[in-house]
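Quick question, first post here. What does this chain look like in 3D?
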Amino acid sequence: MASTQLTEGTIMVGGQVLFYRQVKPAQQTPRFSVLLLHGIRFSSETWLNLQTLSKLAEAGYCAVAIDLPGLGRSKEAAAPAPVGEPAPSSFLKSVFEALKLDQAVVVSPSLSGMYSLPFLFQHSELVKAYIPVAPICTEKFLATQYASVKTPALIVYGDQDVQLGELSLNNLKNLPNHKVMLMKGAGHACYIDKPDEWHLGLLDFLKSLE
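> Answer (accepted):
Ran it through. Tokens below.
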């Protein structure tokens, strides 16, 4: 078991304080960074408790999870857009700058689609790969916009997710360089329903990017 280092702290984004957790491999330079966003009922603590942060660091990646504005330990911060509306792409760009991420894989479940999708379309050069997990807001963009993004993507959803699973897939599959990971018997938060399968698929995909 590789040793890892957990740090917790805050960054300033748009004049507001956001909380983050970061886990790095202790003995080596990270291969690249993975930024983990979260859904409306969750926070960076989800990725800590699920051991996604530690598993990524053990595999040689720098894993960072932030608490989105108004959620988790970033409760004092106001979201830059109403829930369900795409946020300005500058929000995640500022997060990248504050965390000193040159380029990173972005993991984006559910609510966080309102942040990750505008960022992907405007700043795809900063996104090493995109891992949407049944995100919201996919219908707010055109098929031609998706088609213009060359970033590798792993589209993840649970087959029991009747609201966002198929809907998000139908839009996201317009990304030309994508793979699909369907998790059978899993719901909307499929990574919580089947953590072993989630970690296996996630690490497999990351390995393919090296």
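The longest strand covers residues 4-13.
The chain has a mean pLDDT of 96.
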